[in-house]
Design a protein that fits this description.
This protein is an alpha+beta fold. The chain has a single domain (about 10-50, about 80-330), classed as phage-related protein like fold, CATH 3.90.1690. The chain has seven helices and 15 strands. The chain has a five-stranded mixed beta sheet with strand order 7-15-12-8-11, with helices on one face. It has a four-stranded mixed beta sheet with strand order 1-13-14-4. Strands 2-3 form a two-stranded antiparallel sheet. The longest helix is centred in the middle third of the chain and has 30 residues, at about 105-130. It starts with 7 loop residues before the first helix and ends with a strand. The model is unreliable at about 240-245 (pLDDT under 50).
Length: about 325
């Protein structure tokens, strides 16, 4: 490939081409991500951010002699710190000007790859949080069997589990796995209470996330018209076409990042829920203080270009993934 003189016109045109390539790569990657199903983006305003989690304590009660009673609203404070992330590329001048130079190809490839990573970054961070199982705002590991329904109430109150160990979806037979899925959904819909313990929280399961190794089984459980039964269930096959429809969930989502090869599990699955009452924050939050941006540090005048020995690009952003509501994601542990 012939070399290029670093003129203002050529440099400006090259930077415009890089921007178009980066925008296309960002859009392409963004169209194939799942993190927004489980995490909500919020805008940060300081390095250390304080989040107030409002506890759903409002309720109605019968009034004695028509006398109004008043209640206090409660909030739980949680603090997290935005972290800086970025990368840069430096190429020597002669990698553009020499006849056998490949600087154009390297700069183009880097901008395309780093733009894709800018889009992928929150998903990578969310997946790592799934696997790391961080401490939630109630002071308990995110996936645990003893979350208090009211995180501000004294110890000994009602609890719930978002770590379901009794309902493996990789059970020996499909009909047992289907029974397990239905049992898990029943638990989520009925056993997880409001903070005052008076009523179910009215969670709505919306998605099943699963590693690639569980794709076949999960598709059977959610899309099959018939399943074979074991002898204990009478043998033969059972029509479950209506049962799958009544689950009212979207298509299952395959999440390669949750596989065993990345520190996760090839047997565990996750049920994502929405809270029909509040619908505010998800299972995790992706807090952004500064968006990622690719910056060119290259001069634009002929005099400046004549003096430089290197061309440079950087990207930098400040963000963090932090735990949200534990009742928004339920981990179904495989057998």
């Amino acid at each position: 490939m012939a070399g290029h003189q670093l003129t203002p016109e050529w440099t400006a045109g090259f930077e415009e081409d890089l921007q178009i390539i980066a925008e296309e790569a960002y859009a392409n990657m963004s169209s194939d991500l799942w993190w927004e199903l489980v995490a909500k983006r919020v805008e940060g305003d300081s390095k250390k951010q304080r989040m107030a989690w409002i506890v759903d304590t409002a309720s109605l009660e019968t009034l004695e002699d028509g006398e109004m009673t008043f209640e206090d609203m409660m909030a739980h404070q949680y603090e997290y710190e935005h972290l800086e992330a970025g990368k840069g590329l430096i190429l020597n001048r002669n990698e553009f000007t020499d006849k056998d130079a490949n600087g154009i190809d390297m700069a183009t490839a880097w901008n395309r790859q780093i733009a894709a990573w800018m889009a992928y970054w929150p998903q990578d961070a969310v997946a790592q949080a799934f696997i790391a199982n961080p401490t939630a705002y109630d002071g308990i590991s995110y996936f645990a069997n003893n979350h208090p329904c009211n995180p501000l109430a004294p110890a000994g109150g009602a609890t719930y589990s978002n770590l379901l160990t009794a309902f493996p979806l990789n059970a020996a037979t499909v009909d047992i796995a289907l029974d397990n899925l239905n049992a898990a959904l029943a638990y989520i819909r009925s056993e997880v209470r409001t903070p005052d313990g008076r009523a179910p929280r009215r969670l709505k399961p919306t998605h099943i996330l699963h590693p690639p190794a569980m794709s076949g089984r999960v598709q059977q459980l959610t899309s099959a018209q018939f399943i074979s039964q074991d002898a204990a269930s009478g043998g033969g096959s059972a029509d479950i076409s209506g049962m799958s429809h009544r689950k009212n969930m979207a298509e299952p989502v395959e999440c390669a990042e949750l596989a065993a090869v990345y520190g996760g599990s090839d047997a565990d699955c996750y049920i994502v829920c929405s809270d029909v009452v509040s619908g505010t924050l998800g299972g995790f939050i992706y807090s952004v203080l500064e968006d990622f941006e690719i910056i060119s540090h290259n001069p634009t005048t002929a005099a400046e270009l004549a003096l430089i020995n290197q061309l440079q690009w950087t990207t930098r952003g400040r963000n963090v993934v932090a735990p949200g509501h534990p009742f928004a994601i339920f981990k179904i542990v495989g057998s």
